[in-house]
Every structure is written in C-alpha cells, then in structure tokens.
Amino acid sequence: MRSIRSFFQSLRSPEKLQVTVFVALLAVVSFFSLCSLLMAYKTDTVINNQATGDDRLESDLNANILGTEVLMNLNGTMHRLLGHDQMNGVTRLQNGYLTELQGSVWPETLQDNAEKIAEVQQKLAERGIPFLYAVTPYKIQAEDPELPPYTEDHTNEALDLYVQDLQNLGVPVLDLRQAFAAQEADPYTLFYRTDHHWNVHGGFFAYTQLAQRMQQMLGVQVDPALLTEDSFHEEVYPAWHLGTHGQRTGTVFAGGADDFAILVPDFETRILDEGSGKAGTFEEILLDTSVLQSRDLASRYTYDTVFRFADFQSQNTGCGKKVLFLSDSMGRAVLPFLTLAFTEVRTIEAYSPQNVTMEYIEAYQPDIVVFMHYATVTFNAGCFAFSL
C-alpha cells in the first residue's frame, strides 16, 4: 500500500505525470494494434502494407497501428506545409503525380536479362511460335519528367539500354513508351496519380498498340470496333482509389484519392472463365466489381481486384487466335480487351517464369506468346528464370 501511495504522490510532479500518461497511451495503442494484427492473421485479412521479405512482420504491425491514417496525414500535412517533395520513399512530381525515383542500373544486369528473354524467343521460334516483348512506360516520362529540383531518375536511361540489348539479340520488341509519348493526351493522365499502375484508359491504349502489332505478326484482322473506346462506355467512381504510393504518404500529401473507372462494352459479350467453367458477360467474368460497392481508401487493391487475371475465352468476338500472356499487374487492365480481340488468352504471372515450361507450351499450342511487365522489374538480377 505504501508503495502504491508513493507512486501516486510522485505523479504530482508534472514531468513524471507526462511520462506516465505517455507510457500508458503507448501501452494502450500497442495492445490494440497487436490485437488488430492478430485478428487480421486469424481471419486471413489482406494487410495493406508495402513490404516484402524480412520486413513483413514489422510492416504488418505498422499497418495495424491504431490511428495510422491520422498520424500519416499529420505527417503529410507537415511535409506539404514545409514544401517537401518526398515522403516515405515517394516523390511528388511537379504535376502532383506520385512515383519512386530509380538509381543507376548495372548494364550487366540488363544484358543478362535480355539474353534470358532472347533464349525464350529462340526456343519458341524453333517451334514456329511468334514472341513479342512489350516494354511498358514508367510514370516519369522521358520527354517531360516533371522532376522536382535537385532530383534525378534513371529509369528511362536504363530502359533505353535494355531495349537496345533486346534488339541486338533479335527479340521482337514493342516499346510502348514511344506510343504513349506520341498520342494526343498528356501521358500522365493515362496513369493513376497515387498508384504505379496505368489506369483503364492507359491499359486500353496499351492494348490497342499490342493488338496492332500482333495483327501484323499473325496475319489476322481484329475487328476495328474493338480497337476504339467509342465501342465502350465509362463508369466512374469518384475519389475511389488510393494507390500504392498514396498508401505510403496518406491522402493529404497525395492530394486526395484517384477516380477509378472501368470501360464496359456497348455490344453483346459472352466470356468463359476456363478455370471455373462459368460463362457470362464482360463485366460478370472479366471484372470483379465487388470492391466498387463501397469505398475503402485503406485498401490499395482496388485495381488488382477489379481487373481479374485468369484464363478466358470470348465466345462471340475475336479473330480466333490463342494467346499466352505473361504479365504482372500491368497486364490486368489490358487482359479484358485482349480477350475480346483474340478469342482465347491464357495467363502466367511474370513473377513465376518457372511455370513457363515446354510441356505447357506444347499442350496449349498458343499462336503467339506476349511478355509484358512493370518497367523496373528487369532491373533486378536473375528475374527471368524460365524453365524452357
């Protein structure tokens, strides 16, 4: 009893009281944050963090800290008031778009990855299967980088070297950066402001460029109506999507959430999901609109959820060709339209190249193989470990 009485008497000191209150608040926040994390693990809830590898547990806990959103936005407010262009590894370009800056890349890494792609192309060529490698644009445009003062980015410089390596090895390359720079709209408007992905209009434009090149390689004609947005109507969900970069900075630093839009055909469609055997319309099969029923800015998975990535057939459109599409999340906004144009598209995740085996190729017998992924993936050594 005496020790307890002494403790409360000591709290009469303002300094000790402040420390005690702080420690108590920290304990409460830590307790409820840990409970939130354990509940997320127990219910298999997708945790919205930006880390992989050894930092995963720490990042999962950080993502479940009580009041994370409020604290992040307070931090973002201070950064904006102080005129800072960078926060938590994210750079705010002069036009308000968020991105990450890329340092120099070893030319040897680019050359090695290009040689791996050339080996795949050669093995497919031996079996009479055309191969197309599509280079996606980075959000930072080479001709209009919009970089804040005293910053630099080497993404396009490295991609130039990589494209040259591929071409020197005889790999058919479609450099989408050139098409994005040449089209009428501001290239930045084809990307989400808070995310690293292109939006549905960017995905559709990339699809048209792919389709035009694939037509030439296969000697077929895609219905011109499938190559224009005029055959679709847009459904917009205002301020709906806070992407990967916005999740790391909060809405204040990001300048608010992005509008999220989908394009829906104005013509009759019938799509088959080869995995489930379910058939339905374009929006029933190729899209998952469940996350568009209520807005959740705490989730960065709107894009990844809405645009499904699986094996599909269009049963009433297309030129009757079979496509094997190796891609990552950049392909999600392209796949629905590619399916309409070429009838059957099967997919393999770009991060699982070991699944591309000759047994699979021989069983499926694709008319063409298309490889497209996020721009900076190829800057990583040993990223293309194919099993062909």
Automatic annotation (TrEMBL):
The chain crosses the membrane at residues 21-41. It holds the Pfam family ALGX. One of its GO terms (molecular function) is transferase activity. Keywords: Alginate biosynthesis, Membrane, Periplasm, Signal, Transferase, Transmembrane, Transmembrane helix. GO terms for biological process: alginic acid biosynthetic process. It is found in: Periplasm. Residues 109-219 form the AlgX/AlgJ SGNH hydrolase-like domain. GO terms for cellular component: periplasmic space. SUPFAM superfamilies: SGNH hydrolase (SSF52266). InterPro entries: ALGX/ALGJ_SGNH-like (IPR031811). Pathway: Glycan biosynthesis; alginate biosynthesis. Its main location: periplasm. This is AlgX/AlgJ SGNH hydrolase-like domain-containing protein.
